[in-house]
Design goal:
Length: 191
């Protein structure tokens, strides 16, 4: 059994989608939702899905082993970042080397780095008059959005598209591809 923790800071739609993808599986369990925001809607989703969720402060992430100790106590094998806005600290990166993946709402290396998340990314894509955007699923390292790329999927950006239009297209790609790519990474059919 592979136990997964999903880290999320917001509504948790990707966390729910991933959980539903794996819910009938006997070899994979979404065991824990970790957030840095106690009022994030992901906690309500977790409760409805019957998954334990916990909140840790930014200080707990950055300056203690509380998060790492929690992950170890829950026997977490793999971490998925799904809309998690804090930088993962080095102690967790070291403990879960090549076992933490993230989804980014653009085609890295474009539109990555600190502050590039959610609508900020889509607004930047539209402002730059890009003709395509998409998703990047990648391993994480000590730098924002610089880990090795596992998978990318693209969508067209039309001259008439607003950032909301781009966001909708990108969300569809996230929901379609993220759970399958996680599955392939866990089964070593994609690296």
């Amino acid at each position: 059994m592979i136990n997964i923790a999903i880290f999320a800071s917001g509504s948790g739609s990707n966390a729910e989608n991933i959980t539903n993808y794996f819910k009938e599986r006997e070899d994979v369990s979404i065991k824990l939702i970790v957030s840095n925001k106690k009022d994030a809607y992901v906690h309500e989703r977790a409760e409805k899905l019957g998954i334990e969720s916990v909140t840790f402060s930014k200080n707990s992430f950055e300056n203690t082993n509380e998060v790492l100790d929690c992950l170890k106590s829950k026997q977490i094998d793999f971490i998925v970042l799904a809309g998690f806005l804090l930088k993962v600290p080095q102690n967790i990166i070291d403990a879960y080397s090549q076992r933490i993946i993230n989804i980014h709402p653009a085609l890295l290396p474009k539109f990555g780095g600190k502050g590039m998340y959610g609508d900020n990314v889509h607004k930047a894509v539209v402002a730059a008059e890009e003709v395509e955007s998409g998703i990047t699923i990648h391993y994480i390292n000590e730098n924002y959005d610089e880990g090795n790329i596992i998978y990318q999927a693209k969508c067209d950006v039309l001259p008439t598209d607003t950032y909301e239009d781009v966001a909708e297209k990108v969300h569809k790609l996230e929901y379609l591809h993220f759970p399958e790519v996680i599955d392939k990474v866990l089964n070593h059919t994609i690296k």
